[in-house]
Design goal:
Length: about 290
């Protein structure tokens, strides 16, 4: 997809917090089979990894046929003793700095330099995105396969071809953030960091086993991004966000799902008064929700 001469060097700054497990987006893409040398400053760091690829779910326990290779992300543990290091992936992907485990320590500013990478599409809420639009309009052949949208509350990772369909990204950000804000107010939860949602062409047969990032199927993308109307896909997305707002393991899963559904039903009713959640909750219907609602 990329010619070698299109690759470039890039330097970024990240303020990394170690109080929660988190991926830090770099806005960079490493093409398949290309070796990048990574140097991190200052060198007194630990507890982080460099990840290539957004799709952390393994499909090895799912029966074939597969819509993608079962394991496609690559993780490199790094510390001050292995600096610089070389990274590569047979599949390519977006590059992240990942916090490996929670530690009680101060945030640390890291300066990271990469060779042989490409800039990916990365829309950010509250910032001037004119250069991103220019890249789409004039340099489409050089744009990586996946990009990201950062709202006030959520990072979305989705195929570039789907990003192009959205049109005015700022309108979507304002619309979706309004829904999430209402949802969080109803639950009474202040997230310590942004939620992260990754769209995948296939999910494990038994469902995703990870809580970060949240994984959604590409099938619901049009419902989510191309209209501002209530839908079962939007309901399912907000339910996933609601569920991770509750303390892990504090509720029976059925009770947790019922309260999450109640929170989303409230949010729908605020946005679209008179709309019945029964139209969109058929995959998540439970007796306790009916009693609560």
């Amino acid at each position: 997809h990329f010619m070698i001469e299109k690759l470039q060097n890039a330097s970024i700054k990240l303020n990394v917090h170690f109080s929660s497990i988190e991926w830090y987006s770099t806005g960079l893409w490493l093409p398949a089979g290309v070796i990048s040398e990574v140097k991190i400053q200052p060198q007194n760091f630990s507890n982080i990894s460099i990840q290539i690829g957004s799709h952390a779910d393994s499909l090895l326990d799912s029966p074939p046929p597969f819509k993608r290779w079962p394991v496609i992300n690559q993780l490199y543990n790094v510390d001050g003793t292995k600096n610089p290091i070389q990274i590569a992936s047979p599949f390519g992907g977006l590059i992240y700095i990942v916090v490996n485990e929670i530690k009680k320590s101060r945030a640390q500013e890291l300066r990271v330099h990469f060779t042989n990478v490409c800039h990916s599409i990365f829309f950010k809420e509250g910032e001037d995105n004119s250069e991103v639009y220019n890249s789409i309009n004039f340099n489409e052949s050089e744009i990586p396969l996946f990009g990201e949208i950062k709202t006030k509350f959520v990072y979305f990772t989705l195929p570039f071809e789907e990003i192009k369909k959205i049109g005015k990204i700022e309108n979507f950000i304002k619309y979706f953030d309004g829904l999430v804000q209402e949802l969080l107010m109803f639950i009474g939860y202040k997230p310590p960091n942004l939620f992260r949602i990754v769209f995948d062409v296939q999910s494990p047969t038994e469902g995703s086993t990870i809580m970060y990032p949240l994984v959604l199927n590409l099938d619901i993308m049009d419902e989510l991004f191309l209209n501002e109307e209530p839908s079962s896909g939007l309901f399912a997305t907000l339910m996933k966000i609601a569920i991770v707002c509750f303390p892990e393991g504090s509720l029976n899963p059925n009770v947790e799902a019922a309260f999450a559904a109640l929170s989303v039903a409230h949010t729908f009713n605020k946005k679209w008064p008179g709309v019945s959640p029964d139209e969109f909750i058929y995959e998540h219907f439970m007796p306790l929700f009916a009693e609560l609602w």
